[in-house]
């Protein structure tokens, strides 16, 4: 009897105490940042179609540089002001260094086995060291040589097609694919190999779309995992199968080549190096940082994406902007004529140093069209930024597109004006000016920046030096659009068509 009475009294007391502790904790905890009010249970899910860099930039104009959204029971935070980007990418870098996972990311990256999507920690550190060693060791200096070789090959391809409209998207993809393949896999495919290019382009573009797409299924409880209203799960399986087939055939080729090859050191490319590293790894390392075959596949995937799509998109956007802006086109071509000379077609490193205006055009293109408009980060622990609370395990996106167009940082931000980068004090690409971080900043920043920038600058220097570019008949500069397609990276929705004509006083030969 007494026990029952005690229980009857105890339960309300416990409930009261629990509530009291909870509300005290809530009072002590900082508030969430501002954001649009959501509906009970589903939060802001009905707005999901606006959650791309443009839609999020628009919301940030109403709610501020740190935006809070709720998706079901999950949170999402978006950074659009340089001061808050500095907090996230520099001051509290260690707290924001994880990557968020979604159904698509998990599936496509072999469960986060690659470098770009693995969480921060000892395993990531080891992968990053290996990646940098593969790309930039003395041996891999060939990556840089392959950039020159493949650019020369592309220039010769354009030279035999002068007077015809060229699809600049395909031209740029074919170039960067060949650079990456030569550097990483030791082979390049012929530019006339249209079918394989189409297939490769399709795989890369589908991956980018899937990485970047907001999927309602990510925000429902796990027992509802069959729920796939956008049909993404099926697409993810198909995409992974095509890439798997491709990467496995690359690995197989290398394993077979090795069997008959006694002089591996001379011949070795990045995949050879990765495979011999993997073989040794099994003998010496049993710890959690051990690198397995899925990690090797993941690294190959990162090189394919990092090295190919980013640079290809940047080349297409740069030519798009110049065709819309004839005065800037004229100015950069005059600079090339005076630095390189119209009697020579090859542009080399020493010329690049002196091409000041070309470098401004490169930066202005990356400001308006950052290849990754949203940097994907996640909190390692609870965080506080400018007086607001961000719980552990929350995705935090840094909107580089919004930063590049921030009206408080740039005058006339929507216009293409490369001259803004002239003169001392203009933002550089080192990641210290947070209104301009196309390669990110801090520990998760791009490890391929130097190689990517070199390929980008050298490719556009050659294309602009060797050829005059005009629009297909009937089109004026004002007709060129800058409408973007979907994806984690930002493609041009309709590929740019442009007609090259000869400009030099010398022939373009081997
Ligand atoms: C114009 C060219 C490029 C641009 C604009 C670019 C941009 C970026 C950005 C914004 C990030 C994420 C930074 C962050 O989350 O804070 C990134 C990461 C990465 N990039 Fe690049 N990138 C380029 C070229 C390359 C190249 C050529 C490679 C390699 C061959 C590469 C490999 C990677 C990898 C592996 C990561 C993930 C690093 C990590 O999570 O630790 N990128 N890149």
UniProtKB/TrEMBL annotation:
<keyword id="KW-0479">Metal-binding</keyword>
<dbReference type="GO" id="GO:0016705">
    <property type="term" value="F:oxidoreductase activity, acting on paired donors, with incorporation or reduction of molecular oxygen"/>
</dbReference>
<keyword id="KW-0503">Monooxygenase</keyword>
<dbReference type="GO" id="GO:0004497">
    <property type="term" value="F:monooxygenase activity"/>
</dbReference>
<comment type="similarity">
    <text>Belongs to the cytochrome P450 family.</text>
</comment>
<keyword id="KW-0349">Heme</keyword>
<dbReference type="InterPro" id="IPR017972">
    <property type="entry name" value="Cyt_P450_CS"/>
</dbReference>
<dbReference type="InterPro" id="IPR053062">
    <property type="entry name" value="CYP450_84A"/>
</dbReference>
<protein>
    <submittedName>
        <fullName>Cytochrome P450 84A4</fullName>
    </submittedName>
</protein>
<keyword id="KW-0408">Iron</keyword>
<feature type="binding site" description="axial binding residue">
    <location>
        <position position="446"/>
    </location>
    <ligand>
        <name>heme</name>
    </ligand>
</feature>
<dbReference type="InterPro" id="IPR002401">
    <property type="entry name" value="Cyt_P450_E_grp-I"/>
</dbReference>
<dbReference type="Pfam" id="PF00067">
    <property type="entry name" value="p450"/>
</dbReference>
<keyword id="KW-0560">Oxidoreductase</keyword>
<dbReference type="InterPro" id="IPR001128">
    <property type="entry name" value="Cyt_P450"/>
</dbReference>
<dbReference type="InterPro" id="IPR036396">
    <property type="entry name" value="Cyt_P450_sf"/>
</dbReference>
<dbReference type="GO" id="GO:0046872">
    <property type="term" value="F:metal ion binding"/>
</dbReference>
């Amino acid at each position: 009897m007494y026990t029952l009475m005690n229980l009857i009294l105890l339960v309300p007391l416990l409930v009261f105490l629990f509530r009291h502790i909870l509300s005290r904790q809530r009072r002590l905890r900082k508030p969430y940042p501002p954001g649009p009010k959501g509906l009970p249970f589903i939060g802001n899910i009905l707005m999901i179609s606006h959650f791309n860099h443009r839609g999020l930039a628009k919301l940030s104009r109403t709610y501020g540089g740190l935006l809070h959204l709720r998706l079901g029971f999950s949170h999402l935070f978006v950074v659009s002001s340089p001061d808050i980007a500095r907090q996230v990418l520099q001051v509290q870098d260690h707290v924001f260094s994880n990557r968020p996972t979604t159904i698509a990311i998990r599936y496509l990256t072999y469960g986060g086995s690659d470098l770009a999507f693995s969480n921060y920690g000892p395993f990531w550190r080891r992968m990053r060291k290996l990646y940098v060693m593969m790309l930039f060791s003395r041996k891999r200096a060939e990556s840089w040589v392959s950039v020159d070789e493949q650019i020369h090959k592309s220039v010769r391809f354009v030279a035999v097609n002068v007077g015809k409209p060229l699809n600049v998207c395909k031209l740029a993809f074919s170039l960067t694919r060949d650079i990456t393949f030569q550097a990483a896999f030791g082979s390049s495919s012929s530019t006339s190999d249209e079918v394989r290019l189409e297939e490769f382009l399709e795989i890369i573009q589908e991956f980018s779309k899937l990485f970047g797409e907001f999927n309602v299924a990510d925000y429902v409880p796990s027992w509802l995992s069959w729920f796939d209203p956008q049909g993404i799960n099926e697409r993810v399986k198909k995409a992974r199968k095509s890439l798997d087939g491709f990467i496995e055939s690359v690995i197989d080729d290398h394993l077979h080549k090795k069997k008959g090859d006694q002089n591996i050191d001379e011949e070795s490319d990045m995949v050879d190096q990765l495979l011999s590293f993997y073989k040794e790894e099994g003998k010496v390392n049993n710890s959690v940082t051990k690198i397995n075959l899925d990690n090797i596949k993941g690294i190959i995937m990162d090189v394919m994406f990092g090295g190919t799509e980013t640079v290809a998109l940047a080349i297409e956007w740069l030519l798009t902007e110049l065709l819309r802006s004839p005065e800037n086109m004229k100015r950069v071509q005059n600079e090339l004529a005076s630095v390189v000379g119209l009697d020579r077609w090859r542009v080399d490193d020493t010329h690049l140093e002196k091409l000041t205006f070309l470098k401004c055009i490169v930066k202005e293109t990356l400001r308006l069209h950052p290849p990754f408009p949203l940097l994907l980060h996640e909190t390692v622990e609870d965080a506080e930024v400018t007086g607001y609370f961000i719980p552990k395990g929350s995705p935090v996106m840094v909107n580089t597109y919004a930063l590049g167009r921030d009206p408080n940082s740039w005058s006339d931000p929507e216009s293409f004006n490369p001259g803004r980068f002239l003169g001392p004090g203009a933002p550089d690409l080192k990641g210290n000016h947070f209104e301009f971080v196309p390669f990110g900043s801090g520990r998760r920043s791009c490890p391929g920046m130097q190689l990517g920038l070199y390929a980008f600058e050298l490719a556009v220097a050659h294309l602009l030096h060797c050829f005059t570019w005009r629009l297909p008949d009937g089109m004026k500069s004002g007709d060129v659009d800058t409408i973007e397609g979907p994806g984690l990276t930002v493609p041009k929705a309709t590929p740019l068509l442009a007609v090259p004509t000869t400009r030099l006083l010398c022939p373009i030969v081997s």
